[in-house]
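Hey,
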Amino acid sequence: MPFRPLPFFSNRARLDADLHLPDGGDGTLYPVIIAASGFQGLKVIHPERFARALMPRGYAVLAFDYRGFGASEGERGRLAPQDWAEDVRAAVDRVSAEPGLDVDRIGLLGWGLGGGVVVAEAAEDPRVAAVAAVNGIADGARSTRNMHDEQSWQSLLDRIAADRGRRAELGRSEITSPWDIVRLDLDGRTDGYVGEELYKAPGFGAGVTLESADMLLRFSPETVAHRISPRPLLVMHGSENELHKPEEARSLYEHAAEPKWLELIEGAGHTEWMFDGHPTFRHLVDTVDKFFTDAFSSVSIG
């Protein structure tokens, strides 16, 4: 799979990124998709999976690590979706300045938490021509609450409240397991996939700050989703997703303005089907490809 490094800076931190390019090239400018990871995600996981699927269809795909993750600079353990939206905007800055890419055909594709991140970024960035959110979140507080039982939710809220005082006094936030925030154990299919597949990626599962949880609970992309219009939004979500429940997709869709599309993928959970050759993933890619092809056909090729 041909690619070349394309690092960029976001808030003065150098982010590690690769630009995946279709074979050949006859001088035509490529449409570009920026693939955004989810919670604890790294570019080598789903962004590169999307690159492998979309590059043969004629798209350039940028895969990158958020600040503080992978080989990117930034504070380790800080996982704030508000920061990540800035990172995606910086990625748009970078591809907009790169020869061979069509600045009029830039799309965002977000997975999981990244689905909410790309909505938040595109709402403020008219350079983005189309947005696809897959198994995303619409409201951080609601989606996180739905992952927890009563006891673990109250414990998390108490720890976040105590950590605010700690940060104010000491300037540091407590590091905790990411799975204290995201309760994987209540979603057996996702828990199994994460344990068997995602931990293969170096650095996956590292601790995060309680400030990250505080920021997540204050993150609500559904409140700005309407600003994407008149640019199109595609929302796809597993109908049996027990991590980010389908109500997240429905709420994001309801808050967005036209043109918009919603598909609940029948029988699919959150991530157990994310393999290159899985029929559900192939269906996802077909749908995403058609969505971006249609969206980009309405803009002039630069």
